[in-house]
From TrEMBL:
This is 3-keto-5-aminohexanoate cleavage protein. It comes from the Bacteria. The keyword Metal-binding applies. Its cofactor is Zn(2+). InterPro entries: Aldolase_TIM, BKACE. Pfam families: BKACE (PF05853). GO terms for molecular function: 3-keto-5-aminohexanoate cleavage activity; metal ion binding. Keywords: Metal-binding, Transferase, Zinc.
Length: 313
């Protein structure tokens, strides 16, 4: 397949709410660690920084805007990367809790999970013998019996209050083919207008699997629903599927997302020491294939973002 003319946007998801401190000593937990790793990732080539927060005391996921306030200004001061604040938070949070940070800071972008789903990491608990903090084991094991909630009403609320109300555009996280149809519903309702950024996610237990055929299927489905010129397409491969799936997807025209939220490893048996390591690796792989990496300014243009001057931090 011919290489697309446009440059590839690298998104880096810096910490997330999936992995816990016992899973990697390199997972950023404190505001200072999150800021440092986000800045390094931007310097390595990430045009978009997808950000969650953690309780500085024990690393559990946090939706406290005051914690976000401890790292957002530092990141903005040090880099021109697009800052993307999660609206997903964690499966333990209410919708109001999840929306508190992006509604306060009015970022250029926010993530938006396009449906309710089983979202589980409970098998990981069997591989951990020593837990660093008391909350972790119950949190990981408990995902076997938790549904991440984003109903149609929830999504409409986010699109109206955060999108229309704050001028924030979205990273539409699609974990299965039904999520693409949910997205199409809101496009038909006039609540989402192109160009939109579709993040297709593969390899999460509860979502579509990481088979290369599924990547092609999701791409072809999106093209049927929206037309190839209406959206920018990105791919996330969870865990061990990260680098191989992203490289193959880029050959089909995809942008890519890496980061310690999505995978703790750099390669087989090799733990990533930072988010920047993953950014540098995927950048190297893409450049070896002849791709050019998008700058933050180019990403803003492709995604029709409002610009860093319009955020509230």
């Amino acid at each position: 397949m011919a290489r697309p003319a446009q440059k590839v946007i690298i998104t880096c998801a810096v910490t997330g709410a999936i992995h816990t401190p016992s899973m990697s000593p390199h997972l950023p937990l404190t505001p200072a660690q999150i800021a440092e790793q986000a800045i390094e990732a931007a310097q390595a080539g990430a045009a978009i920084l997808h950000l969650h927060a953690r309780d500085p005391a024990d690393g559990r996921p946090s939706a406290d805007p005051e914690v976000f306030a401890q790292f957002l200004p530092a990141i903005r001061a040090a880099t021109d990367a697009v800052i993307n604040i999660t609206s997903g938070g964690s499966t333990k949070m209410t919708l109001a809790e999840r929306l508190a940070p992006p509604l306060r800071f009015k970022p250029e972008m926010a993530s938006l999970n396009m449906g309710s789903m089983n979202f589980s990491i409970h098998p990981a608990a069997t591989r951990i013998k020593d837990w660093k903090y008391g909350w972790e084991q119950a949190y990981v094991e408990g995902t076997e019996d938790i549904i991440f909630r984003n109903t149609f009403r929830d999504i409409r609320h986010i699109l109206q209050d955060l999108g229309e109300g704050c001028g924030t555009r979205f990273e539409f996280e699609c974990y299965d083919v039904g999520h693409l149809y949910n997205l199409a519903h809101f496009v038909d309702q006039g609540l989402i207008k192109p160009p939109f950024f579709i993040q297709t996610i593969f390899g999460i237990l509860g979502g579509i699997g990481p088979d290369p055929q599924n990547v092609t299927f999701m791409r072809e489905t999106a093209n049927r629903l929206f037309g190839a010129d209406s959206y920018q397409w990105s791919v996330l491969g969870a865990g061990r599927h990260q680098m191989g799936l992203l490289t193959a997807a880029a050959l089909q025209g995809a942008h890519v997302r890496v980061g310690l939220e999505d995978s703790l490893y750099l390669g087989r048996g090799q733990m990533a020491r930072s988010n920047a390591e993953q950014v540098r690796k995927i950048r190297h792989l893409l450049e070896e294939l002849g791709f050019e990496i998008a700058t933050p300014a180019e990403a803003r243009q492709m995604l029709a973002l409002k610009g860093a001057a319009q955020v509230a931090f």
